[in-house]
Write a structure and sequence with these properties.
CATH architecture of chain A: Alpha-Beta Complex
Oligomer: homodimer
Number of strands of chain A: 9
Largest interface: A-B, 34 and 33 residues
Number of helices of chain A: 7
Strand content of chain A: 15-25%
Order of helices and strands of chain A: EHEEHEHEEHEHHHEE
Structural class of chain A: alpha/beta
CATH topology of chain A: Spore Coat Polysaccharide Biosynthesis Protein SpsA, Chain A
Chain lengths: 219, 219
């Protein structure tokens, strides 16, 4: 199955600007991408993984991922990738450093164990992100298109209904946690041993609980 | 299996104070409790559910839940419940309005499908909450005790190791989302059709995306 991983190689994770400068944000984004590619590689599936980057970017040779450059915004770039084939396509965001092979398998399973409706495989599988986003999609229905603006999880449910596709939602904290604000960095340090977490520790970040709430501080 | 649901009947969800007054917070907390009890009742398990409340509280007669009053703080009250039996005890927080029967089953399953280690059942199962908390625990090891202060997910892993209990972590967005800040109310409106979501709609709350980020506004 084809898996597309959109990646902003130019100015990623701008909401981390209060704690990381532009070069650091690019380095940290690369570490998160490596974690996502490692989770895809570790999943027990035969996957054709393609990084869909806004600018040329090298990926580590052991990732088994090709890079396609498309400098359009996220939504038209992903929709071009969906339109390029009638086969199922998964789209997994690059800023999900908690994702594991098992979480990937939960997204791609045609009939996951314990599904409420264990019948026909859903036409569209959605993994919601915190804040109303859509962190991963499996589009089996060839007519499904994405729109990442706004509360995209709600919009994607409606878009699936419009093309007559059934929807399954994946219940995964590891897929739901996209790195957006500085507070999310604490979740990475707490729940991951991957490259993004190592990058943060190397950059001096640690979990702080000074005021009773979990945050990060930079030493 | 015994399931304990701690519930603050006096002054719940104080961080919602900017958007809900004290009476409203009590009403909304009751709605969230009803959702959690409904999810437990709907799970395909034989459960002995006990609400562990800080003050007398009635629960709806169709919930099959008894109420025990213990006015101590959360940690000693839960530890007394754990110490009361050698049998496994689950502890599920009352402010998890997204929880479903399936998510409950994922917590209670002795050997969930796709587990990394499908061998012996873990001595302690933890469902992390956003922000470092622990939203649900299944304590099979009779020596395990909780401490909800600080980054309790990390502390509970250490506490399990100290008593020689293996740990399994549940990957569930629906268990991870506890209602803490006003921003969490938008997640309830987006991802639940339960009583808490209905309470919010009745109180005039709706999802807002004015500045591009999902929030709630009250009409």
């Amino acid at each position: 199955m084809r898996v597309v991983v959109p990646f902003d190689a130019r100015d990623p994770n701008t909401r981390l600007d209060p704690v990381l400068d532009a070069d650091e944000r690019r380095g940290f984004a690369r570490a998160m991408l490596a974690d996502v590619l490692a989770a895809l590689r570790g999943a027990d599936r035969d996957l054709d993984v393609r990084v869909l980057a806004t600018a040329p970017v090298g990926v580590e040779s052991d990732t088994d991922a090709d890079v396609t450059v498309d400098d359009r915004p996220l939504t038209p770039a992903v929709n071009a990738a969906l339109a390029a084939t009638e086969e199922p396509v998964a789209v997994v965001m690059a800023d999900l450093p908690l994702v594991t092979p098992k979480a990937v398998e939960g997204l791609l399973d045609p009939e996951p164990h314990g599904a409420d409706d264990p019948g026909e495989a859903a036409g569209v599988v959605l993994a919601p992100g915190l804040g109303g986003g859509t962190n991963a999609v499996l589009a089996r229905h060839p007519g499904f298109r994405v729109d990442y603006h706004g509360v995209s999880y709600r919009d994607h449910r409606e878009a699936a209904a419009e093309v007559g596709a059934t929807v399954r939602t994946v219940d995964s904290f590891r897929l739901a946690l996209d790195v957006d604000d500085p507070a999310d960095l604490a979740e990475v340090l707490l729940h991951s041993e991957g490259k993004a977490a190592a990058w943060l520790r190397e950059a001096g970040f640690a979990i702080s609980t000074g005021d009773g709430r979990m945050r990060v501080e930079r030493g």
